[in-house]
Design a protein that fits this description.
- The structure holds two protein chains of two kinds.
- By secondary structure, chain A is an all-alpha fold.
- Chain A has helices at 2-12, 17-36, 40-65.
- In chain A, helix 2 packs antiparallel against helix 3.
- Chain A starts with a helix and ends in a 5-residue tail after the last helix.
- By secondary structure, chain B is an all-alpha fold.
- Chain B is elongated.
- Chain B starts with a helix and ends in a 5-residue tail after the last helix.
- The A-B interface holds A 6, 9-10, 13, 15, 17, 20, 23-24, 27-28, 30-32, 34-35, 38 and B 53, 56-57, 59-61, 63-64, 66-67, 70-71, 105, 115-116, 119, 122-123, 126, 130, 133-134, 137, 147.
Chain lengths: 70, 147
């Protein structure tokens, strides 16, 4: 059962670059919110803000690097 | 007057011994919680009664590290020989028991020739760093520096 779950996850995790960035941003934002915020409302606000910044800065850097990509 | 001084001293010494016992107890708890938090992400917070935090840390660290393994990221060995390898090992070892699961998840070994493998390496290192921060958080909570 564990093996089949592992094979399922392994085949399901064919992430694109953007998908990997979203997953990374979400998980790290959750952990940082837990570390820095003590209230639930503050935590939720922090997760949303941090996640949005991760994605926006990632997209911004990607566009900055676009001219030198080829 | 002398009796009152003596009883006052006794009260102070009792308070001192109680404080030092509490400090020693807190230090032991902090050490135990930190070790548990490092070994299994989230368990340190669980021991301190922070169920929500424990769940979030376990999900975040395990999610990052398992994704990293499935993306076939590089896991640094203990004796790599160069400073970057040592730093990589320290970050990876921060994942605790997950470090030893790498062979189970990455049976085919790492593949950093593709971008996904490179991302995987970062995922695993980030998981380790996040878990080390969680260990520091457990120490602060158990010593009473944080509520």
């Amino acid at each position: 059962m564990i093996c089949s779950a592992f094979i399922f996850i392994n085949s399901a995790l064919r992430l694109s670059h953007f998908g990997a960035m979203l997953l990374f941003a979400l998980l790290v934002s959750l952990a940082l919110a837990c570390l820095s915020q003590r209230t639930r409302a503050g935590g939720v606000k922090y997760v949303l803000w941090s996640f949005a910044l991760f994605v926006l800065v990632g997209l911004g850097v990607a566009w900055l690097m676009y001219p030198i990509s080829r | 007057m002398a009796v009152s001084h003596a009883s006052g001293d006794r009260v102070i010494s009792t308070a001192h011994s109680r404080t030092s016992r509490m400090t020693a107890g807190r230090a032991t708890l902090a050490l135990f919680a930190a070790l548990a938090a490092w070994l299994v992400p989230g368990v340190g917070h669980l021991l301190l009664g922070r169920w929500g935090r424990a769940l979030v840390f376990f999900c975040a660290v395990s999610g990052l590290v398992v994704s990293g393994y499935l993306l076939r990221g590089n896991v640094f060995p203990p004796h790599s020989g160069d400073p970057f390898g040592t730093l990589g090992f320290l970050a990876d070892a921060g994942t605790g028991v997950f470090y030893y699961f790498s062979r189970f998840f990455e049976s085919a070994g790492p593949d950093v020739s593709r971008a996904a493998g490179d991302y995987g390496t970062r995922f695993i290192a980030a998981a380790g760093v996040v878990n080390l921060l969680a260990v520091l958080d457990t120490i602060e909570i158990s010593t009473g520096r944080r509520n």
